[in-house]
Amino acid sequence: MQDKGGEAVIYKADVSVSKEVNNMVEDVMGIFGKIDILVNNAGITDPRFFLDIKEEGWNRMINIHLKGTFNCCGFVVPHMIKMRKEGLKGAYIRLHSYHDEIEFLKGQLETIDKNMEELLKKIDIAEYLLSILGIGIITVAGFLTEGGDLANYSHFKQIQKLAGLNIAENQSRKHKGKAKNSKRGRPELRNLLHKSSLTLVAKNKEFKALYNYFLKRPKNPLKAKQALIAISVKLVRVMFALAKKRENYDPQKVLGEYRMMQINQLAA
């Protein structure tokens, strides 16, 4: 390159870290005075089987592929805009790199979904868990991966404890209605149940009604975060029951007559 009159600089930086990207861009601007073309080629993949990839590893791939693209464009584009305003030409951005990165990740996700679907077909209880409206392949696969063989449990509270969802409501006058979980156990399972609960209260009629009841009940109403914890526990209970009884989800049974009476009285 030097023989042809060109010049190059090799710079080591973690594109998922904003400060490192900013320092890199500023140093390059200091050397060359401008940036004409931006190409994002940073990318990593995890060679392990997808069920062995933990949330931390997945987040790292997302950071490199998407956040890395965002950071590089975020610090370079302002310089390009400034150059254009000053009359400099030739500033080109490879915007299709966004498209390439997104298509790459979509392809990986589609492959993972297909692999999980095939594996779940081999687990006889998976179909019962998937019958819950609002619960999909990723949730069931994660639940069975973190919880293991449900035949090893005699009560749903064992899974509740495993997830660190041991709720205690303070009955004192000053802190009445306060609820919290222990945050012990497996954080991946707890986070999975939390995200699933958010989906359920939005898409599942029965869980949404139960969530609203927890928020508005006359005695000991819960705050939004506390109510979601209670929904997570309910989800564990329902999934455990369906697996043990080998039954599909039944909207008429999930809440029970007494709870339905309470919900109806509140709505009246």
TrEMBL record:
**A single Pfam family, by name?**
Transposase_20
CDD domains listed in its UniProt record: SDR_c
Q: What is this protein called?
A: Transposase IS116/IS110/IS902 C-terminal domain-containing protein
Residues spanning the membrane: none
This entry's Gene Ontology molecular function terms read: DNA binding; transposase activity
InterPro entries from the entry?
A: NAD(P)-bd_dom_sf (IPR036291), SDR_fam (IPR002347), Transpos_IS110 (IPR047650), Transposase_20 (IPR003346)
Q: Name one GO biological process term.
A: DNA transposition
Classification lineage: Bacteria, Bacillati, Bacillota, Clostridia, Thermoanaerobacterales
* Residue stretches making up the Transposase IS116/IS110/IS902 C-terminal domain: 127-211
